[in-house]
Design goal:
Blueprint lengths: L1 H4 L9 H4 L13 H5 L27 E2 L8 E4 L2 E3 L3 H11 L13 H14 L3 H12 L20 E3 L5 E3 L6 H5 L13 H12 L3 E2 L2 E2 L3 H7 L36 E4 L5 E5 L4 E5 L12 H4 L2 H14 L1
Amino acid sequence: MKLKTEGLFDYKKTLGFYLPELVGTDKENLIIEDVLTHQAGLQAWIPFYLRTLKKNDEYKPGFYNKKATDKYPTRVAKNLYVVKGFNDSIYKRIINSKIENPGKYLYSDLGYYFMQRIIEKLSQKTLDEYVSDMYFKMGIILTYQPLKKYSISQIAPTENDSKFRKQILQGFVHDPGAALEGGVAGHAGLFGNALELAKLMQMYLNKGELNGIRIIDTAVVRDFTACHFCPDNRRGLCFEKPEADNKKDSPVTSECSAESYGHSGFTGTFTWADPKNGLVYVFLSNRVYPDADPNKLAKLGIRGKIHKAFYDALKN
């Protein structure tokens, strides 16, 4: 959104326009608008870490080391470093992954790996540097790799990962693909608290401005938070939107206006903004601690029930 405001980014262009390494592949002509609304035909996700494990879930030789060295520079978790260049093999697998059912909505995190490359190329900064600089200007504290800035006692544990990292994750991103990228990824890895997330959502409600600092153009916020392919696909650009069809499941309570937008995450994160009444809702949860199953949060509809309670309070 910021790069679009600066005239550097156009979602009507193809991935290949920004990433020449995709020229000649079936990803070259994917329209970024389709990628950001999850209808480009990309796979939902790829469990990259499985290639580093034996059938008994032990690590295959050569992939990991307990200490950081020139050969093992990237920290995946406590006392766990992945071999140099593994991020290149991740990217290659994404490029070689199958395109299936283009035009049909399927949430995919693979597109955000491409977005990270585009952001870093256009900004000439690493994603964590770019994000840190942008949020700092607004007085928002959201960060990658939180252990570099905060004590572990300030960070909620995420999961007891018995299969991949074989430890309780605390201060490390839950997503395995993002972890193998060192915790800085386009689709996961951002840490913060409810207040900082509320500030971010308020900035969107203010159409790109917070504390007197304008980061994003008003028209860009309006464009990205609007539904682009309704009624078949309810998504905004990256943003979740309410489902207009009563026969389909909606990510939010029916009280939310059609103009509202937000995000729900795998670990229980949920935030939503409604321009119609100025309501910002933030629900943070480490629901995957100690483990990811069963997903009682979703089955019991906890987030939606609390969200509805706020709307009921507004009516009263």
